Amino acid sequence: MALAIRDVREHDLDAVLALNNTAGRSILALDAERLRYFYEQADYFRVAEIDGHLAGFLIALRDGRDYSSPNYLWFSEHYPAFVYIDRIVIANAYRRHGLGRIFYCDVNSYAEVRVPLLTCEVFLEPADDVVVLFHGTYGFQEVGQQRMGERGPQVSLLAKDLPSYTYVRDTYLENENSGLPDLPWLAGRDLPLANQDAKARRLAGERRS
């Protein structure tokens, strides 16, 4: 079994949309417009490919994005800097292969050199003890709860401290030679060309902070 975790490509989007919308009640449905937003704006959007087949994906955004998700907005109101996991989906045929943990290790590695906090939410309605246990064993703690809209589900808002960030910030991000080393595993996602200016402004702001 050949596994690759890589940045999403435009030709993946139809398969990602189909996978998302057949994932069940615990994953909110997407339309093509919302998925295009993620493709153009998400700081982290990676897929798992097994033997050439799309096996899953994870989408995450940093603070400061123009994103209307009530859970993302909750974290924006409470924390100045974070990476927010919007969704993770694993295809039925590839569950129980450890892909969830592989994705979480990967997004953790992305986040811990950029921000002090990794965040997400889990649905409490319907309750899923396996999902709650998964996040608990990975170091997430509940920092709040809210209902998504008047009739939406109750969710538990989770956060995981990233202690490595302090060292990275002091050594690289706030050093006079600011910036992470130019290594492939430290590189951020190459957003579509239309968003390169916004990415450049973000990086410039980080170097000045």
TrEMBL record:
Entry superkingdom: Bacteria
Gene3D superfamilies: 3.40.630.30
Domain N-acetyltransferase: residue ranges: 3-163
The species this protein was found in: Dyella acidisoli
Record-given protein name: N-acetyltransferase domain-containing protein
PROSITE patterns reported for this sequence: GNAT
